[in-house]
Amino acid sequence: MAQLNLQKKIKLAIKYPSTAKNTVFDKYLYENKATPFPRTINCFITERCNFNCPMCHVVTSRLKNMNELSLPDLKKFFDNIAPYSPSVSLAGGEPLMHPEIIDIIKYLDQKRIVKGLVTNGMLLEKMAADLINSGLDFLAISLDGPDEATQYQRGLVKDSFPQIIKGIKKIIELRGKNTFPNIRIATVISKSNIANFDKIYEVIKDLGVDEWSISHHFYFYDKIRKQQLKFSQKTKFGNDVWGEYNGTKKVLFNAKERLTISQKLKETQALINSNKSKVKITMPNSMDIKNFYTGAIPKKESICTSPFNQVFLRGNGDIEMCHGYILGNIKENSLLDIWHNKKTIRFQKYIQKNKIIPACFRCCSLNPIF
User: Fold this and answer.
1) ∠ CA 63-185-51, rounded to 5°
2) At the N or C end, where does the chain have fewer CB atoms within 10 A?
3) Closest Cα partner for 251 from 188, 298, 295, 287?
4) Cβ partners under 8 Å of residue 148, min gap 6
5) Taking every pair of C-alpha atoms in the chain, what is the biggest distance, in angstroms?
6) Average pLDDT score over residue span 144-151
């Protein structure tokens, strides 16, 4: 989630006034209920990927099909959603592997749709010029290590670290003094980097990026998977659990590792408080680290707004609510019709009443309360 300064917010609001209006008023008008149309559409435009990340939170559902939406399919879809002023996040797989990715971004820009892209960075250097000239608003680049050894453990691809850094530098160079795209480095806490937040900061601080975000490691274990399967069989909702599967172990980080995480996050927070950082840093400083990483089940007071304001578009045209629950297909129905159909409303009502399901365990959309 990007954290923009006032100048950027004003520029975006001028370019996308309807989207800005929704952003301001939705939290008052649609608390714990569905917006008239999805505000965020996460487009997995391709399921192909050149990384093999062990923590990939959508790998199970992604590998169910390896389809890819074509530019004509997407143009028709974007024509359909443009009047409702949503934001579109282009992801995958690796979205830069889609052969028509630049034309996709340019068409979104023509339709005046807010658009961002999430990438592992391997193809950035090659595609930097086209991306800068495409009209892209947001660019998020995953970087989980300060060197080759730790970054390799992220995607299991050799020489990925220097290639990603070269790509970031090229993007920054070509962006020049322009405001957009807003460029964010995204880091996920892992066993290989828990002691290296300061080193990662040293790597990125002089690159010229706008933001650095740190997020917790999303995982689940065998008991959660079994609970979700039982729940799915009973309710006919989806059966996917997003996150890295941790086998029978409910604890992801031991006590020593959790202490290290806490200390390093405190050091990073001190850097934020001192106002000495050259980049804007966002991090989950309010999380209960012990409960999060020892497998505690979130309370019903936990908050998730995802079913009420966003959907996921798959490479075969399926519209997914979350955890593999398919609402419809854009090749058969409009997104507006899908958003208001019986399957969608049924799940939204369930969440309104019951708040969470087993698959919510460590989902990235959930704000867990223990």
Assistant:
1) 30
2) N
3) 295
4) 159, 160, 161, 162
5) 55
6) 83
The amino acid at residue 333 is N
- CA-CA distance, 247 to 262, in Å (whole number)? 25
Predicted confidence (pLDDT) per residue in 183-212, tens digit: 999 999 998 899 899 999 999 998 999 999
Q: Pull the structure tokens for residue 248.
A: 């029978």
Residue 116 and residue 165: Cα distance in Å, rounded?
20
* 3-class SS letters over 163-214: HHHHHHHHHHHHHCCCCCCEEEEEEECCCCCCCCHHHHHHHHCCCCCCEEEE
Higher pLDDT, 67 or 296: 296
The overall average pLDDT reported for the chain is 91
Q: pLDDT digits over 94-119, tens only?
A: 899 999 999 999 999 999 999 999 99
Map residue 46 onto helix, strand or coil. Answer: strand
- In the chain, the percentage of residues whose pLDDT exceeds 70 is 94
Distance of alpha carbon 133 from its chain centroid, rounded?
A: 23
What is the DSSP code string of 105-117?
Answer: HHHHHHTT-EEEE
Q: Following DSSP, what letter does each residue of 227-269 receive, concatenated? A: HHHHHHHHH-------SEE-TT---SS-HHHHHHHHHHHHHHH
Of 155, 165, 33, 93, give the one whose Cα is nearest residue 313: 93
- Closest-CA residue to 130 (of 114, 117, 112, 143): 117
Beta strands in the chain (DSSP E): 40-44, 87-91, 114-119, 138-142, 182-188, 211-215, 219-220, 244-245, 280-282, 310-313, 318-320, 326-329
Instruction: Please state at what angle helix 124-132 crosses helix 101-110, rounded to 10 degrees.
Output: 20
What is the residue type of 34?
A
- Assign 307 to helix, strand or coil: helix
- Per-residue confidence (pLDDT) for residue 92, from 0 to 100: 80
